[in-house]
Amino acid sequence: MTNPVLVGIDGSPQSFVAARWAGREAAARGLPVLLLNVWQAPAGNVQFSPDPEGLRFWEETRVREAGKELTDLHPGLSVSARQESGPPMSVLLEAAAGAELTVLGSRGLGAVRGFFQGSVGLHLAARSDRPVVTVRGGAGADIGQMDTVDRDVVLALDLDRPCGPLIAFALESAAARHAAVHAVHIWDVHRMYGYAAPSLDPELARELREERSRLLATTLAPWRRHFPGVVLRESVIAGPVAQSLVAVADRAGVLAVGRRRTHPAGAVRIGPVAHAALHHAACPVAVVPHD
């Protein structure tokens, strides 16, 4: 059985933009789409709350509308939809375990909306064992704004801890999209050398940067052989990691960043770079877990 592209639908405009993006991605990869609405009755004073059953029916209707929109856009695409009850985080996390990837809507650039409301999306990205993609969108977003299929996939690499699943995800996504991969390593001199960075000898700085460039090329060499049809470009960029990465990915089709499943203290969390990308990148962001 083929794992689907899972989409969280909560009825918001952001979740519909996510569904459109997921439909294109699924069609390019030859995968089915599963639209999932997680219903949880609103908490609070029942006397002053909207009718819970009416809200549940409205969300169920929105899921059906999203499904019809995807089948109209992609006639050959297999689309299924369902509504489940329970805590959104728990239900989504369980469903994500059986998905190829999970797609959620986000307003991005600051405050988060849609399934990111209440940090559900952040928690899912931090805990899922499968890739989670967040797609920025709003009430004014349309299909044209989400036309990112043939744009570069930007691959953010930490050369001290390169991870195969992250590189594979970027290359597989690019191959399906007939797009290129731009592999980027951000070299933050100040983070590496602290107050000594401004006084770093220019010749030594050049040699160190060239060393990072050679390491990046060596890391990607076997992947070039596995994906000969994908154009793979490499860049080593000097500057603050999060800020530089967001700038590089400004016009990307997808920004792929890694997330370690566990940290030394045993905590499960998103690192600062992935966190910044989720909140500030204009393009869809894929968080790919790795050991």
TrEMBL record:
Transmembrane segments: none annotated. InterPro entries: Rossmann-like_a/b/a_fold (IPR014729), Universal_stress_UspA (IPR006015), UspA (IPR006016). SUPFAM superfamilies: Adenine nucleotide alpha hydrolases-like. Pfam families: Usp. Belongs to the universal stress protein A family. PANTHER family: STRESS RESPONSE PROTEIN NHAX, UNIVERSAL STRESS PROTEIN UP12. This is Nucleotide-binding universal stress protein, UspA family.
